[in-house]
Design goal:
Number of strands: 7
Mean pLDDT: 78
Structural class: alpha+beta
Oligomer: single chain
Helix content: 55-70%
Strand order of the largest sheet: 4-3-2-1-7-6-5
Shape: elongated
GO molecular function: protein phosphatase activator activity
Organism: Kryptolebias marmoratus (Mangrove killifish)
Distance between the termini: 81 Å
Family: Belongs to the SMEK family.
Largest sheet: 7 strands, antiparallel
Radius of gyration: 43 Å
InterPro entries: ARM-like, ARM-type_fold, EVH1_PP4R3, P4R3-like_central_dom, PH-like_dom_sf, PP4R3-like
Number of helices: 36
Protein name: Serine/threonine-protein phosphatase 4 regulatory subunit 3
Low-confidence stretches: 113-129, 485-501, 679-700, 713-785
């Protein structure tokens, strides 16, 4: 399959009237038994899979365009196109199609499409309508010609007939000759008619006519005709703009004359479509679909021709990075690469992939690293746009380059750090460039677009790289603007509200808001790395300094950062917040806000509401213990009362849990209790053992009485222990009896005290009597066994 004549690209027209590339392969025409007819088959050159199988129907209208395109429709909304690499291959397949349909290969269309609305009265049309008779191309007949062209636009059949008539008689060039004469004589009426004629011919939507009208010797006359719109008092000066104002700059001389001609043609046709022609109405929106396709295929061809010319592109990048290149030249080179990348957007994904790989191989990223650090604002802006194209298409390619960069002694020479510096140093008061760069950084550090299948280590390696070499550059402005907080602990209470560092400058506040937005994204998507960074740098404390900012949006960004951290419900973060008492600046901001019902008020209350609803016990206990007195007066929402309720519920639950442990200890049977008593007495060697031995020596009945007496003594010890051993400080129990004294002193060393110390709640007095009956200190060691 090395025959390049048969090499084609298969395109389909999507709903947005844009051509989608379905792949590259080789076309053949052969009889397919299943379809019962000669069919066009295209097999992919990569794996031989079938890209297209289309029967050549006798009634399908095929069109040949630009010598290398064959276009047809297989259904109402399904248009197909074959783009041939060589004209010879296109001619060969076209002859086969015409042979099957019994048509003349000299024509560029094989069928006359019939509009459904006209099928009913088709029989009424005389046979002579197979040709549209054009009036002679004379000055006196221009009005008649204009009426004819305008009248056929509503009928698909007549549009086809008129297009064939215009092509067969070379009518277009004759009309353009009349235009030159009318303009010389300043014949405004004739010029107005020619405007209507040329506009109508464009709306015929025929590629064959476009080939003539947009050729080098005709296109400027076509533009001239379109200057004389009858609705305008004075004609526009489009030709003057195209020839004098718009300059074609060759940053590197283009030796290929065909490429140069294609670039000129595409620019001018795009100008006609975007500037000269009025926006089509709803009824005319499909009249210029072929014009859109014409521009699309031209752009694809330009990109392909430039991409294949490695000498040209190599020279571009060599001059771009050469220190000897003067600023104006470098500006033109960067703008060229930017325009080149913009053209590549017309390519399909697989072609764009090859395009960007070509640029990467030529050194686009090292070149951007140099150019983005230059002082010229225009050069930097264009470089950022190019970087945007690269990141949006293939963030992995950029990440791979960054990690392969040699680790310099100065981190700011790394590409990502250059990008961060540009974001921080953006001179635009609205930070337009910084917002764009922040979005690109976010894309680069987003784990969602890191390839897990082909390179399982990309996420780990890149994030480790980013946090080691780049994160300190990103957070530098934030840390610099909150540096005074280090000494805030030494300042008198209330002095934090006087904040000399919190930026009053709107631009700085905006920058910090962008950085906080990126850090908030990191909290949500980078678990280990950002957690380590926050803990090591005490970052949340520094961020919460910004709660004092006069810019509410910045205070909200700081609050959002904390909210995202709490939203993870991670106990490591919770302990960090509790230890640092980091709710204080938030609660101060709430109290300072007063009774104002605004976004800050709602956002802070939502934070506490989340803690209540999610029942984050450690944070609830911390908030109620330390701040409830300041918050209990807030009654317009039930959030803080709810937090107090949660706190009390947990307190009751822990108390019940403690009681349950005590009741479980009572479930030991008497024999087990006796065994434990014996075991403890052996270890302790105290008076209880001697007393029980004397009881056993008497009789069984005396033993039972002695046992009950021992149990009663133990209950007395339990009461003493409950009152005397709070979880925080061990104390000596009251000496109710010799046995209770021994047990009380021995218990603090056992694991049971740890269990009791989980809750620092006093036991209610009305439960003391029940506990006296149920508890025994000699049973407690069982809880740890």
């Amino acid at each position: 399959m090395s025959d390049t004549r048969r090499r084609v690209k298969v395109y389909t027209l999507n709903e947005d009237r844009q051509w989608d590339d379905r792949g590259t392969g080789h076309v053949s025409s052969t009889f397919v038994e299943r379809l019962k007819g000669i069919s066009l088959l295209v097999r992919a050159e990569s794996d031989g899979s079938l890209l297209l199988e289309s029967k050549i129907s006798p009634n399908t209208a095929y069109q040949k365009q630009q010598d290398t395109l064959i276009v047809w429709s297989e259904a109402d909304n399904y248009d197909l196109a074959l783009s041939f690499q060589e004209k010879a291959g296109c001619d060969e397949i076209w002859e086969k199609i015409c042979q099957v349909q019994g048509k003349d290969p000299a024509l560029d269309i094989t069928q006359d499409p019939i509009d459904e609305s006209e099928e009913d009265h088709f029989e009424e049309i005389p046979e002579t309508t197979h040709l549209v008779e054009l009036p002679p191309c004379e000055l006196s007949r221009l009005e008649e010609i204009a009426d004819l062209v305008t009248s056929v636009l509503s009928s698909p059949i007549r549009r086809e007939k008129l297009a064939l008539a215009l092509m067969s008689e070379g009518y277009i060039k004759k009309l353009l000759g009349l235009f030159r004469g009318c303009e010389d004589m300043d014949n405004r009426e004739g010029l107005h008619h020619l405007y209507e004629i040329v506009r109508g011919v464009l709306f015929l939507n025929k590629a064959a006519l476009f080939e003539v009208m947009f050729s080098d010797d005709c296109i400027m006359d076509v533009v001239g005709c379109l200057e004389y719109d009858p609705a305008l008092v004075q004609p526009k000066r489009h030709r003057e703009f195209l020839t004098k104002t718009a300059k074609f700059k060759e940053v590197i001389p283009i030796t290929d004359s065909e490429l140069r001609q294609k670039i000129h043609q595409t620019y001018r046709v795009q100008y006609i479509q975007d500037i000269i022609l009025p926006t089509p109405s709803v009824f005319e929106e499909n009249f210029l679909s072929t014009l859109t396709s014409f521009i699309f295929f031209n752009k694809v061809e330009i990109v392909s021709m430039l991409q294949e010319d490695e000498k040209f592109l190599t020279e571009v990048f060599a001059q771009l990075t050469d220190e000897a290149t003067d600023d104006s030249k470098r500006r033109e080179l960067v703008n060229f690469v930017k325009e080149f990348c913009a053209f590549s957007q017309t390519l399909q994904p697989q072609n764009r992939d090859a395009f960007y790989k070509t640029l990467a191989n030529l050194g686009i990223l090292p070149a951007l690293e140099i150019v983005m650090g230059m002082d010229d604002l225009q050069v930097r802006a264009a470089a950022i746009d190019i970087f945007s194209y690269l990141v949006e298409f293939s963030p992995s390619m950029v990440r791979e380059f960054v990690m392969q960069e040699p680790q310099q002694t100065e981190d700011d020479v790394l590409l990502i750090n250059v990008v961060i510096k540009q974001m921080i140093c953006d001179s635009d008061p609205e930070l337009g460039g910084a917002v764009q760069l922040m979005g690109l950084l976010r894309t680069l550090i987003d784990p969602e677009n890191m390839l897990a299948s082909t390179n399982k280590t990309e996420k780990t390696e890149f994030l480790s790289f980013f946090y080691k070499y780049c994160m300190h550059v990103l957070t530098a402005p934030l840390l610099a603007n909150t540096a005074h907080d280090k000494n805030s602990k030494d300042q008198p209470e209330g002095s934090a509200k006087i904040n000399p560092v919190c930026p009053d400058n709107f631009q700085t506040a905006q920058l910090l808001a962008l950085i906080l937005e990126l850090l908030t994204f990191c909290v949500e998507h980078h678990t280990y790395h950002i957690k380590t960074y926050i803990m090591n740098k005490d970052l949340l404390r520094r961020v919460l300094v910004l709660m004092n900012s006069k810019h509410t949006f910045l205070a909200l960004c700081a609050l959002r950062f904390m909210r995202r951290i709490i939203g993870l419900k991670d106990e490591y973060y919770n302990r960090y917040i509790i230890k640092g008492n980091l709710f204080e600046p938030v609660i101060n901001a709430l109290l300072d806000n007063g009774t104002r019902y605004n976004l800050l008020n709602s956002a802070i209350i939502e934070l506490f509401e989340f803690i209540k609803v999610e029942d984050i016990k450690s944070l609830i206990a911390h908030i109620v213990d330390n701040f409830y007195k300041a918050l209990e007066s807030i009654e317009y929402v039930q959030t803080f009362k709810g937090l107090k309720g949660r706190y009390e519920q947990e307190k009751d639950r822990q108390s019940q849990k403690l009681n349950k442990y005590r009741r479980d200890a009572r479930s030991l049977d008497d024999d087990e209790e006796l065994w434990f008593n014996d075991d403890e007495d052996d270890e302790d060697g105290e008076a209880v053992e001697r007393r029980m031995e004397d009881d056993f020596s008497d009789s069984y009945e005396k033993f039972m009485e002695a046992k009950k007496g021992a149990a009663n003594g133990a209950n007395g010890a339990n009461n003493g222990k409950s009152a005397a051993i709070p979880p925080a400080s061990p104390t000596v129990a009251p000496n109710n009896s010799s046995s209770s004294s021994v047990k009380t002193v021995a218990l603090p060393a056992t694991p049971v005290v740890k269990t009791v110390g989980l809750v620092d709640y006093p036991v209610d007095e009305d439960e003391d009597e029940d506990e006296e009956e149920e508890q025994s200190p000699r049973k407690r060691p069982r809880l740890s066994s």
